[in-house]
From TrEMBL:
The keyword Transmembrane applies. Residues 45-173 form the VanZ-like domain. This is VanZ family protein. Keywords: Membrane, Transmembrane, Transmembrane helix. The chain crosses the membrane at residues 6-27, 39-57, 95-113, 120-141, 156-174. It comes from Sporolactobacillus mangiferae. The lineage of its organism: Bacteria, Bacillati, Bacillota, Bacilli, Bacillales. Coiled coil: none annotated.
Amino acid sequence: MNHILNPTIFEFFTVYIILFGVCVLWEKWVRRTLTYNRGVFLSLFTGYMLLTLLLTVQPMSPAEWSIVVPGSPLVNLRPFRIITLMLQSVQGHWLLMWSIFLPIPFIFFVGFLRRGKIGFSNLFVTGFTASLIIEVMLYVMNHIPHFPKHLFDLDVLILNGFGVFLGCVLFSWMESKQWMKEYISETMSTK
């Protein structure tokens, strides 16, 4: 492994299989609630969390480094500053897209875990709180030697909040349909 933040496909799937195995063993022998559908759900959830972790801990982008003043704290509290810089860069559009679309599956996983019995506002607060916790943890990890530096960025929270909102709207709309209610019930069933 060259670097923990840049794993090969083999290393990624090795870690994925280990994490998935732990989840399946937990469901099978501790909770005794493993079904085929829950196994598929766990597989997708484990893969999503691992990919999210790898994408989240990547080093700062050139746009973020361009606003950092040497010796100052790594904090951007000016809204739309980084967004504007990213829109001007070649790869910035992809970074913006990830910041918006990465929280959407999380909203669906939370909705499934709550078996669809969660209101729009609670779903939004859960998603936004998770985003805020991740940003704070990344900022705190700046004090770990040899760990990539991360900017506590208000713009990322804005983009993630927009993605959480989109995910909540989409989940709420889909959850109102009978087929989605049946699918959630079927997926999360313990029988």
